[in-house]
Amino acid sequence: MRWVVLALAVLLSAEVSFVQTRSDAFLLDPSKPYVFLDFDHVGQRKPLSDSESRRGLWLRLVNNCRVPIKIDTFDPGTGDPGVGIFYDVLPVRPHSGYVTSSGEVHSSAVPRLVPQGYYFSNQTVSHRIVPPGGTILFSVPSNHVRPEWYLRAKFEFDLPETRLRQPTSLVEFHWLDIPERFREVTPSK
To answer: Is 56 exposed, middle or buried (0-12, 13-18, 19+ CB in 10 A)?
Structure first.
């Protein structure tokens, strides 16, 4: 019996080691998600509309995997560094419903004053390829990430073209992702 337990322990240890090696082969930094939004700084930005704050959150989309990713971007035309990325702003409250930036209502409950993300029909869409280990800098109005709502962007792996559509993945940025010293509940213009 002792030998059977020892043999099972050795096999289980080998399996865990194999799985760990495989995920390490996919991730550049195994302590982080394969793609994530990272806080860069808070700073001035040129608003894209009169309703936006001049104070912005500057974020980086980080590709932490060994496969290039592709995300839809646009030129905000402001002269600020970085690009614009398309994203939705969604309420944190689960099952309360939300309205996408295109105006589509999900569920019967409409959240209170959730700002619209960036999905403009008049923008020229570009596909930005982010190589393994690469980042994209972009800014969002400071009021687009609050305790009550967060932003979410879509991306996909940049794989060879096939007749089938590639799966889409989502990446989110929440209020708690902002370092505490930079959180401000009332946005300033």
So the answer is: buried
Contacts of residue 139, defined as CB under 8 A and 6 or more positions apart, other chains included, come to 43, 45, 56, 57, 58, 59, 80, 82
Position 8 scores a pLDDT of: 44
Determine the Cα–Cα distance for residues 2 and 113; give it in Å rounded to an integer: 65
Q: Which of the four pLDDT bands, split at 50, 70 and 90, describes residue 104?
A: low
Are 67 and 159 in contact by the 8 Å Cβ rule? The answer is yes
Domain ranges of the chain: 1-31, 32-182
What pTM did the predictor assign? 0.75
Give the list of residues 6+ apart from residue 3 with CB closer than 8 angstroms, or none: none
